[in-house]
Structure prediction request, 104 residues.
Amino acid sequence: MSLEAITKIREVESSMEQSKAEARSQVQKLAADAEREGRALLEQGRKEAAAAADAAMKKAEEAAAGRRKEILAQAEKDCEKLKADARKRMDKATQAILGRVVES
Prediction:
């Protein structure tokens, strides 16, 4: 083989090694970029899920507060009705007690 052919073969081999090294570097960069983007998407998903959970919790708390007000209002009405009924029966109870005291 001539010296010129050997030199060309070495140049081609060197060029191929350089191309392989560049390809490896590009693959590593692409993998790192994909991993970084994946982590960013995962973090974004977590933030969105947390925001949705917070919104759902706030809505549930507001609904519970509204229901609490309704229950308290109904309990107050029921108490007032019981008081009114008791006042109506107070005269009869007083008369019954006085009647028993006087009879004894």
The helical segments are 3-103. The chain is about 95% helix and 0% strand. The two ends are 144 Å apart (CA to CA).
